[in-house]
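Notebook entry, cofactor series.
This is the third protein in the set we're modelling with a bound small molecule. For this one the ligand is flavin-adenine dinucleotide. I'm keeping the input format identical across the series so the outputs can be compared line by line later. Sequence and SMILES below, as received.
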Amino acid sequence: MAMAKDFDAIIIGAGIIGAATAYAMARKGQRVLSVDKLPAAGYGSTSGSCAIIRPYYSTVEGSALAYESHFYWKEWEEFLGVPDERGMARYYDCGCIVMKTEGNRYLRPGIEIMDEIGCPYQELSPAQLVERLPIVTVDSFAPAKRPEDPGFGEANPTKLSGAVFFPTGGYISDPQLATHNLQRAAEAKGAIFRFNAAVADILKEGGRASGVVLDTGEHLRAPVVINIAGPHSFKINRMAGVEAGMKIKTKALRHEVAHVPSPPGYDIEREGYVFSDNDVATYIRPEIGNHILVGSEDPECDRREWVDPDDFNREFTDQWRVQVMRIAQHIPQLGIPSQTKGVVELYDVSDDWIPIYDKSDLPGFYMAIGTSGNQFKNAPVVGEMMADLVEACEGGCDHDRDPVSFHLKHIGRTVGLGFYSRLRDINPDSSFSVLG
Ligand SMILES: Cc1cc2nc3c(=O)[nH]c(=O)nc-3n(C[C@H](O)[C@H](O)[C@H](O)COP(=O)(O)OP(=O)(O)OC[C@H]3O[C@@H](n4cnc5c(N)ncnc54)[C@H](O)[C@@H]3O)c2cc1C
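Returned structure with ligand:
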Protein backbone atom coordinates (compact mmCIF):
# COMPACT_ATOMS: atom_id res chain seq x y z
CA MET A 1 0.00 0.00 0.00
CA ALA A 2 1.38 3.44 -0.87
CA MET A 3 2.48 5.52 2.12
CA ALA A 4 0.33 8.61 2.84
CA LYS A 5 2.35 11.78 2.29
CA ASP A 6 1.89 15.50 2.69
CA PHE A 7 5.35 16.35 1.28
CA ASP A 8 8.16 14.65 -0.62
CA ALA A 9 10.64 15.57 2.13
CA ILE A 10 10.65 17.13 5.58
CA ILE A 11 13.80 18.94 6.67
CA ILE A 12 14.28 19.36 10.41
CA GLY A 13 16.12 22.65 10.91
CA ALA A 14 16.13 25.92 8.98
CA GLY A 15 19.70 27.02 9.64
CA ILE A 16 22.07 27.81 6.77
CA ILE A 17 22.58 24.11 5.86
CA GLY A 18 18.89 23.24 6.24
CA ALA A 19 17.73 26.22 4.16
CA ALA A 20 20.34 25.48 1.46
CA THR A 21 19.16 21.87 1.30
CA ALA A 22 15.52 23.00 1.07
CA TYR A 23 16.48 25.27 -1.84
CA ALA A 24 18.45 22.57 -3.67
CA MET A 25 15.69 19.97 -3.26
CA ALA A 26 12.96 22.41 -4.28
CA ARG A 27 14.98 23.21 -7.40
CA LYS A 28 14.80 19.52 -8.25
CA GLY A 29 11.01 19.77 -8.11
CA GLN A 30 10.60 18.15 -4.67
CA ARG A 31 7.76 19.34 -2.41
CA VAL A 32 9.77 20.27 0.66
CA LEU A 33 8.64 21.26 4.14
CA SER A 34 11.23 22.83 6.45
CA VAL A 35 10.32 22.84 10.14
CA ASP A 36 12.16 24.75 12.83
CA LYS A 37 11.33 25.19 16.48
CA LEU A 38 12.65 28.77 16.46
CA PRO A 39 10.68 31.75 15.08
CA ALA A 40 12.73 32.36 11.90
CA ALA A 41 15.37 30.94 9.56
CA GLY A 42 18.98 31.05 10.76
CA TYR A 43 18.10 31.76 14.41
CA GLY A 44 19.95 28.71 15.74
CA SER A 45 23.72 28.29 15.78
CA THR A 46 23.93 29.94 12.33
CA SER A 47 23.05 33.27 13.95
CA GLY A 48 26.24 33.13 16.05
CA SER A 49 28.49 32.13 13.16
CA CYS A 50 31.55 34.19 12.26
CA ALA A 51 30.67 33.16 8.69
CA ILE A 52 34.29 33.10 7.55
CA ILE A 53 34.89 31.83 4.03
CA ARG A 54 38.35 30.24 3.59
CA PRO A 55 39.77 27.43 1.46
CA TYR A 56 42.32 25.91 3.87
CA TYR A 57 41.32 22.71 5.65
CA SER A 58 43.45 19.77 6.77
CA THR A 59 42.17 17.41 4.06
CA VAL A 60 42.02 17.63 0.27
CA GLU A 61 38.27 16.93 0.29
CA GLY A 62 37.58 19.58 2.93
CA SER A 63 39.66 22.18 1.09
CA ALA A 64 38.12 21.39 -2.29
CA LEU A 65 34.59 21.81 -0.94
CA ALA A 66 35.52 25.08 0.76
CA TYR A 67 37.28 26.47 -2.32
CA GLU A 68 34.24 25.57 -4.44
CA SER A 69 31.95 27.38 -1.99
CA HIS A 70 33.81 30.67 -2.56
CA PHE A 71 32.37 30.80 -6.08
CA TYR A 72 28.79 30.29 -4.86
CA TRP A 73 29.14 33.26 -2.48
CA LYS A 74 30.73 35.34 -5.24
CA GLU A 75 27.65 34.68 -7.40
CA TRP A 76 25.16 34.73 -4.54
CA GLU A 77 22.39 36.69 -6.27
CA GLU A 78 22.63 34.66 -9.48
CA PHE A 79 22.70 31.44 -7.47
CA LEU A 80 19.48 32.36 -5.66
CA GLY A 81 17.69 33.90 -8.61
CA VAL A 82 15.21 35.91 -6.53
CA PRO A 83 15.53 39.08 -4.48
CA ASP A 84 14.83 39.15 -0.74
CA GLU A 85 12.79 42.07 0.63
CA ARG A 86 15.31 42.30 3.49
CA GLY A 87 18.26 42.70 1.11
CA MET A 88 21.03 40.29 0.18
CA ALA A 89 23.89 39.08 2.38
CA ARG A 90 27.20 40.52 1.28
CA TYR A 91 30.44 38.60 0.76
CA TYR A 92 33.46 40.70 1.82
CA ASP A 93 36.18 38.77 -0.03
CA CYS A 94 39.10 40.52 1.66
CA GLY A 95 41.13 37.29 1.73
CA CYS A 96 42.65 35.42 4.66
CA ILE A 97 46.09 35.41 6.21
CA VAL A 98 47.28 32.35 8.09
CA MET A 99 50.35 32.43 10.32
CA LYS A 100 53.00 29.79 9.63
CA THR A 101 53.90 28.00 12.85
CA GLU A 102 55.57 24.83 14.01
CA GLY A 103 52.08 23.67 15.09
CA ASN A 104 50.73 23.84 11.52
CA ARG A 105 54.05 22.58 10.08
CA TYR A 106 54.68 25.99 8.57
CA LEU A 107 51.61 25.33 6.39
CA ARG A 108 53.56 22.96 4.14
CA PRO A 109 50.73 20.34 4.09
CA GLY A 110 48.17 23.08 3.46
CA ILE A 111 50.19 24.49 0.56
CA GLU A 112 50.46 21.01 -0.99
CA ILE A 113 46.67 20.73 -0.82
CA MET A 114 46.26 24.17 -2.42
CA ASP A 115 48.59 23.09 -5.26
CA GLU A 116 46.58 19.92 -5.72
CA ILE A 117 43.21 21.67 -5.94
CA GLY A 118 44.55 24.67 -7.90
CA CYS A 119 43.68 27.23 -5.24
CA PRO A 120 45.72 30.46 -5.32
CA TYR A 121 47.86 31.57 -2.39
CA GLN A 122 50.87 33.78 -1.74
CA GLU A 123 53.59 33.12 0.81
CA LEU A 124 54.47 36.20 2.90
CA SER A 125 57.79 36.88 4.60
CA PRO A 126 57.54 38.39 8.10
CA ALA A 127 58.14 41.84 6.57
CA GLN A 128 55.46 41.32 3.92
CA LEU A 129 53.05 40.12 6.60
CA VAL A 130 53.55 43.27 8.67
CA GLU A 131 53.24 45.40 5.53
CA ARG A 132 49.83 43.85 4.78
CA LEU A 133 48.63 43.71 8.37
CA PRO A 134 50.51 46.47 10.21
CA ILE A 135 48.71 45.83 13.51
CA VAL A 136 50.45 42.47 14.06
CA THR A 137 53.89 41.65 15.42
CA VAL A 138 55.88 38.58 14.42
CA ASP A 139 56.96 37.58 17.90
CA SER A 140 56.09 33.99 18.75
CA PHE A 141 54.21 33.03 21.91
CA ALA A 142 53.43 29.37 21.15
CA PRO A 143 52.10 27.17 22.55
CA ALA A 144 48.83 28.93 23.37
CA LYS A 145 48.54 29.38 27.12
CA ARG A 146 46.04 30.66 29.62
CA PRO A 147 46.79 34.11 31.07
CA GLU A 148 47.36 32.63 34.52
CA ASP A 149 50.05 30.27 33.15
CA PRO A 150 53.70 31.18 33.70
CA GLY A 151 55.21 32.69 30.58
CA PHE A 152 51.96 34.09 29.18
CA GLY A 153 52.82 37.15 27.09
CA GLU A 154 56.55 36.39 27.10
CA ALA A 155 57.88 36.07 23.55
CA ASN A 156 59.92 33.03 22.52
CA PRO A 157 63.52 33.62 21.37
CA THR A 158 62.66 32.78 17.74
CA LYS A 159 60.29 34.98 15.76
CA LEU A 160 57.62 33.72 13.36
CA SER A 161 58.69 32.83 9.84
CA GLY A 162 55.83 34.50 7.98
CA ALA A 163 52.37 33.64 6.76
CA VAL A 164 50.33 32.61 3.74
CA PHE A 165 47.74 34.85 2.08
CA PHE A 166 44.68 33.19 0.52
CA PRO A 167 42.84 35.63 -1.77
CA THR A 168 39.69 33.48 -2.19
CA GLY A 169 38.22 34.09 1.23
CA GLY A 170 36.66 36.60 3.55
CA TYR A 171 33.37 36.64 5.41
CA ILE A 172 29.62 37.04 5.03
CA SER A 173 28.24 40.19 6.57
CA ASP A 174 25.16 38.63 8.11
CA PRO A 175 24.76 34.83 8.38
CA GLN A 176 21.12 35.08 9.41
CA LEU A 177 20.28 37.23 6.40
CA ALA A 178 22.07 34.74 4.12
CA THR A 179 19.79 32.02 5.54
CA HIS A 180 16.73 34.19 4.96
CA ASN A 181 17.92 34.73 1.38
CA LEU A 182 17.97 30.93 0.95
CA GLN A 183 14.52 30.62 2.51
CA ARG A 184 13.09 33.10 0.02
CA ALA A 185 14.81 31.32 -2.88
CA ALA A 186 13.47 27.95 -1.69
CA GLU A 187 9.97 29.37 -1.28
CA ALA A 188 10.12 30.73 -4.81
CA LYS A 189 10.61 27.10 -5.91
CA GLY A 190 7.67 25.91 -3.83
CA ALA A 191 9.27 24.97 -0.48
CA ILE A 192 7.26 25.70 2.67
CA PHE A 193 8.80 26.86 5.96
CA ARG A 194 7.05 26.35 9.28
CA PHE A 195 8.51 28.07 12.33
CA ASN A 196 7.78 27.60 16.04
CA ALA A 197 7.31 23.94 15.14
CA ALA A 198 9.39 21.57 17.30
CA VAL A 199 9.86 17.97 16.19
CA ALA A 200 9.25 15.60 19.09
CA ASP A 201 9.43 12.24 17.29
CA ILE A 202 10.13 10.56 13.96
CA LEU A 203 7.35 8.55 12.33
CA LYS A 204 8.16 5.13 10.88
CA GLU A 205 6.10 2.90 8.66
CA GLY A 206 7.02 -0.28 6.82
CA GLY A 207 10.60 -0.17 8.10
CA ARG A 208 11.34 3.35 6.93
CA ALA A 209 10.95 6.99 8.02
CA SER A 210 7.52 8.33 7.16
CA GLY A 211 7.37 11.78 8.75
CA VAL A 212 7.63 13.69 12.00
CA VAL A 213 5.49 14.33 15.05
CA LEU A 214 5.49 17.89 16.39
CA ASP A 215 5.38 18.62 20.11
CA THR A 216 1.75 19.66 19.61
CA GLY A 217 0.99 16.07 18.55
CA GLU A 218 0.51 17.02 14.91
CA HIS A 219 1.70 14.41 12.40
CA LEU A 220 3.39 15.53 9.16
CA ARG A 221 4.06 12.81 6.59
CA ALA A 222 6.82 12.43 4.02
CA PRO A 223 8.88 9.46 2.76
CA VAL A 224 12.10 11.42 3.32
CA VAL A 225 13.12 13.09 6.61
CA ILE A 226 16.43 14.93 6.92
CA ASN A 227 18.09 15.78 10.22
CA ILE A 228 19.75 19.21 9.86
CA ALA A 229 19.17 20.21 13.47
CA GLY A 230 22.65 21.61 14.20
CA PRO A 231 23.70 21.12 17.85
CA HIS A 232 20.46 19.18 18.46
CA SER A 233 21.41 16.63 15.80
CA PHE A 234 22.12 13.82 18.27
CA LYS A 235 18.71 14.29 19.88
CA ILE A 236 16.96 13.90 16.52
CA ASN A 237 19.09 10.84 15.68
CA ARG A 238 18.04 9.29 18.98
CA MET A 239 14.36 9.95 18.16
CA ALA A 240 14.91 8.12 14.85
CA GLY A 241 16.81 5.32 16.60
CA VAL A 242 19.75 5.58 14.20
CA GLU A 243 22.59 6.62 16.51
CA ALA A 244 23.66 3.07 17.37
CA GLY A 245 24.29 2.42 13.67
CA MET A 246 26.81 5.25 13.37
CA LYS A 247 30.58 4.97 13.90
CA ILE A 248 30.94 8.75 14.04
CA LYS A 249 28.63 10.62 16.39
CA THR A 250 27.92 14.24 17.27
CA LYS A 251 27.63 16.36 20.41
CA ALA A 252 27.24 20.05 21.30
CA LEU A 253 30.25 22.19 22.25
CA ARG A 254 29.88 25.65 23.79
CA HIS A 255 31.93 28.47 22.26
CA GLU A 256 32.39 32.18 22.91
CA VAL A 257 33.23 34.79 20.28
CA ALA A 258 34.39 38.23 21.45
CA HIS A 259 33.44 41.46 19.70
CA VAL A 260 35.99 44.22 20.36
CA PRO A 261 36.90 47.57 18.76
CA SER A 262 39.70 47.66 16.20
CA PRO A 263 42.99 49.18 17.47
CA PRO A 264 42.89 53.00 17.38
CA GLY A 265 43.78 54.47 13.99
CA TYR A 266 43.33 51.20 12.10
CA ASP A 267 40.38 50.65 9.76
CA ILE A 268 40.08 46.88 9.86
CA GLU A 269 36.87 46.97 7.85
CA ARG A 270 38.63 48.50 4.86
CA GLU A 271 42.19 47.31 5.30
CA GLY A 272 41.90 44.10 7.32
CA TYR A 273 41.76 40.39 6.57
CA VAL A 274 40.50 37.24 8.14
CA PHE A 275 43.52 36.27 10.23
CA SER A 276 44.13 32.77 11.56
CA ASP A 277 46.82 32.86 14.20
CA ASN A 278 47.84 29.33 15.12
CA ASP A 279 50.71 30.70 17.24
CA VAL A 280 48.16 31.78 19.87
CA ALA A 281 45.31 29.49 18.70
CA THR A 282 43.01 32.41 17.91
CA TYR A 283 41.35 33.74 14.77
CA ILE A 284 39.92 37.15 14.01
CA ARG A 285 37.85 38.75 11.31
CA PRO A 286 36.75 42.30 10.58
CA GLU A 287 33.22 43.18 11.72
CA ILE A 288 30.92 46.02 10.71
CA GLY A 289 31.51 49.26 12.66
CA ASN A 290 35.32 48.86 12.66
CA HIS A 291 35.18 46.01 15.14
CA ILE A 292 36.92 42.65 15.35
CA LEU A 293 35.45 39.23 16.07
CA VAL A 294 37.83 37.04 18.09
CA GLY A 295 37.30 33.26 18.11
CA SER A 296 39.28 30.36 19.50
CA GLU A 297 41.06 27.58 17.60
CA ASP A 298 40.54 25.24 20.58
CA PRO A 299 44.05 24.90 22.07
CA GLU A 300 44.70 21.94 24.35
CA CYS A 301 45.01 24.15 27.44
CA ASP A 302 41.32 25.15 27.19
CA ARG A 303 38.68 22.90 28.71
CA ARG A 304 36.13 21.75 26.15
CA GLU A 305 32.62 22.40 27.40
CA TRP A 306 30.28 19.70 26.05
CA VAL A 307 26.73 20.71 26.91
CA ASP A 308 23.06 19.86 26.61
CA PRO A 309 21.90 22.13 23.74
CA ASP A 310 18.66 22.77 25.66
CA ASP A 311 20.40 23.80 28.87
CA PHE A 312 23.68 25.70 28.71
CA ASN A 313 25.16 28.96 30.00
CA ARG A 314 24.54 31.79 27.51
CA GLU A 315 26.57 34.30 29.57
CA PHE A 316 30.21 35.08 28.84
CA THR A 317 32.76 33.49 31.14
CA ASP A 318 36.47 34.11 31.64
CA GLN A 319 37.02 32.48 28.25
CA TRP A 320 36.03 35.75 26.55
CA ARG A 321 38.92 37.61 28.22
CA VAL A 322 41.32 34.70 27.60
CA GLN A 323 40.72 34.83 23.83
CA VAL A 324 41.10 38.61 23.64
CA MET A 325 44.28 38.53 25.73
CA ARG A 326 45.74 35.80 23.53
CA ILE A 327 45.31 37.76 20.31
CA ALA A 328 46.46 40.95 22.07
CA GLN A 329 49.90 39.33 22.33
CA HIS A 330 50.15 39.71 18.54
CA ILE A 331 48.11 42.93 18.30
CA PRO A 332 49.59 45.01 21.11
CA GLN A 333 47.43 48.06 20.33
CA LEU A 334 44.23 46.08 20.86
CA GLY A 335 42.31 47.45 23.82
CA ILE A 336 40.61 44.96 26.13
CA PRO A 337 37.18 46.44 26.86
CA SER A 338 35.71 46.01 30.32
CA GLN A 339 32.29 45.37 28.77
CA THR A 340 31.95 41.93 27.19
CA LYS A 341 30.19 41.78 23.81
CA GLY A 342 29.94 39.01 21.24
CA VAL A 343 28.15 35.67 21.08
CA VAL A 344 27.89 32.46 23.05
CA GLU A 345 26.82 29.65 20.73
CA LEU A 346 27.20 25.93 20.09
CA TYR A 347 29.11 23.88 17.55
CA ASP A 348 27.64 20.53 16.53
CA VAL A 349 30.90 18.59 16.73
CA SER A 350 31.53 15.17 15.19
CA ASP A 351 34.13 12.78 16.61
CA ASP A 352 36.72 13.89 14.04
CA TRP A 353 35.46 17.46 13.44
CA ILE A 354 34.50 16.52 9.86
CA PRO A 355 30.77 16.66 9.06
CA ILE A 356 28.44 13.74 8.39
CA TYR A 357 26.51 14.20 5.14
CA ASP A 358 24.87 10.83 4.79
CA LYS A 359 21.94 8.45 4.83
CA SER A 360 21.24 6.37 7.94
CA ASP A 361 20.38 2.76 8.71
CA LEU A 362 16.70 3.79 8.66
CA PRO A 363 15.63 4.02 5.00
CA GLY A 364 14.31 7.49 4.16
CA PHE A 365 16.14 9.14 7.09
CA TYR A 366 19.17 11.30 6.20
CA MET A 367 21.48 13.68 8.03
CA ALA A 368 23.64 16.77 7.40
CA ILE A 369 25.19 17.21 10.82
CA GLY A 370 28.45 17.44 12.76
CA THR A 371 29.37 20.72 11.10
CA SER A 372 31.95 21.30 13.85
CA GLY A 373 32.06 25.10 13.75
CA ASN A 374 33.35 25.19 10.19
CA GLN A 375 30.63 24.51 7.61
CA PHE A 376 28.74 27.79 7.20
CA LYS A 377 30.82 28.55 4.13
CA ASN A 378 29.98 25.23 2.49
CA ALA A 379 26.20 25.44 2.92
CA PRO A 380 25.27 26.29 -0.69
CA VAL A 381 27.32 23.35 -2.01
CA VAL A 382 26.24 21.00 0.79
CA GLY A 383 22.59 21.71 -0.04
CA GLU A 384 23.20 20.48 -3.59
CA MET A 385 25.21 17.48 -2.36
CA MET A 386 22.39 16.46 -0.01
CA ALA A 387 19.78 16.84 -2.75
CA ASP A 388 21.85 14.57 -5.05
CA LEU A 389 22.47 12.07 -2.25
CA VAL A 390 18.76 11.78 -1.39
CA GLU A 391 17.82 11.48 -5.06
CA ALA A 392 20.39 8.73 -5.63
CA CYS A 393 19.49 6.75 -2.49
CA GLU A 394 15.74 7.04 -3.08
CA GLY A 395 16.43 5.90 -6.64
CA GLY A 396 17.93 2.66 -5.31
CA CYS A 397 21.65 3.47 -4.95
CA ASP A 398 23.42 1.59 -2.14
CA HIS A 399 25.47 4.59 -0.97
CA ASP A 400 27.21 2.67 1.84
CA ARG A 401 28.70 0.20 -0.66
CA ASP A 402 28.99 2.37 -3.73
CA PRO A 403 29.23 6.01 -2.57
CA VAL A 404 27.57 8.74 -4.57
CA SER A 405 29.97 11.29 -6.01
CA PHE A 406 29.45 15.01 -6.50
CA HIS A 407 31.00 17.27 -9.11
CA LEU A 408 32.43 20.60 -7.92
CA LYS A 409 31.71 22.50 -11.10
CA HIS A 410 33.70 25.67 -10.43
CA ILE A 411 36.97 23.98 -9.59
CA GLY A 412 36.53 20.96 -11.85
CA ARG A 413 36.91 18.18 -9.26
CA THR A 414 34.71 15.32 -8.17
CA VAL A 415 34.38 14.31 -4.52
CA GLY A 416 33.20 10.95 -3.24
CA LEU A 417 30.54 11.52 -0.59
CA GLY A 418 31.79 8.43 1.26
CA PHE A 419 34.28 10.89 2.79
CA TYR A 420 31.38 12.20 4.91
CA SER A 421 29.98 8.78 5.83
CA ARG A 422 28.65 8.04 9.32
CA LEU A 423 30.42 4.67 8.97
CA ARG A 424 33.94 6.05 8.35
CA ASP A 425 36.83 5.51 10.72
CA ILE A 426 37.96 8.65 12.52
CA ASN A 427 39.95 10.66 9.96
CA PRO A 428 43.50 11.00 11.36
CA ASP A 429 44.29 13.88 8.98
CA SER A 430 41.73 16.14 10.66
CA SER A 431 42.94 19.06 12.75
CA PHE A 432 40.42 17.92 15.42
CA SER A 433 39.54 21.57 15.83
CA VAL A 434 37.33 24.22 14.30
CA LEU A 435 39.84 24.37 11.43
CA GLY A 436 38.34 21.08 10.18
C1 LIG B 1 30.42 30.69 17.26
C2 LIG B 1 30.44 30.04 15.90
C3 LIG B 1 31.31 30.51 14.93
C4 LIG B 1 31.33 29.89 13.67
N1 LIG B 1 32.14 30.40 12.70
C5 LIG B 1 32.12 29.84 11.46
C6 LIG B 1 32.90 30.41 10.42
O1 LIG B 1 33.57 31.43 10.61
N2 LIG B 1 32.87 29.81 9.20
C7 LIG B 1 32.13 28.68 8.96
O2 LIG B 1 32.17 28.17 7.82
N3 LIG B 1 31.37 28.12 9.94
C8 LIG B 1 31.35 28.68 11.17
N4 LIG B 1 30.57 28.17 12.15
C9 LIG B 1 29.80 26.95 11.88
C10 LIG B 1 28.52 27.25 11.15
O3 LIG B 1 27.92 28.41 11.65
C11 LIG B 1 27.61 26.04 11.28
O4 LIG B 1 28.29 24.92 10.72
C12 LIG B 1 26.30 26.24 10.55
O5 LIG B 1 25.70 27.47 10.90
C13 LIG B 1 25.36 25.10 10.88
O6 LIG B 1 24.13 25.31 10.24
P1 LIG B 1 22.98 24.29 10.43
O7 LIG B 1 21.89 24.71 9.51
O8 LIG B 1 23.50 22.91 10.29
O9 LIG B 1 22.58 24.40 11.99
P2 LIG B 1 21.78 25.50 12.83
O10 LIG B 1 21.97 26.87 12.34
O11 LIG B 1 22.09 25.23 14.25
O12 LIG B 1 20.28 25.12 12.54
C14 LIG B 1 19.66 24.00 13.13
C15 LIG B 1 18.21 24.35 13.35
O13 LIG B 1 17.54 23.17 13.80
C16 LIG B 1 16.51 23.60 14.66
N5 LIG B 1 16.08 22.48 15.50
C17 LIG B 1 16.81 21.81 16.41
N6 LIG B 1 16.06 20.86 17.00
C18 LIG B 1 14.83 20.94 16.45
C19 LIG B 1 13.61 20.25 16.66
N7 LIG B 1 13.49 19.27 17.56
N8 LIG B 1 12.53 20.61 15.92
C20 LIG B 1 12.62 21.61 15.00
N9 LIG B 1 13.75 22.32 14.79
C21 LIG B 1 14.84 21.99 15.49
C22 LIG B 1 17.15 24.73 15.45
O14 LIG B 1 16.15 25.57 15.99
C23 LIG B 1 18.02 25.41 14.41
O15 LIG B 1 17.43 26.56 13.86
C24 LIG B 1 30.50 28.78 13.41
C25 LIG B 1 29.60 28.32 14.39
C26 LIG B 1 29.56 28.96 15.63
C27 LIG B 1 28.59 28.47 16.65
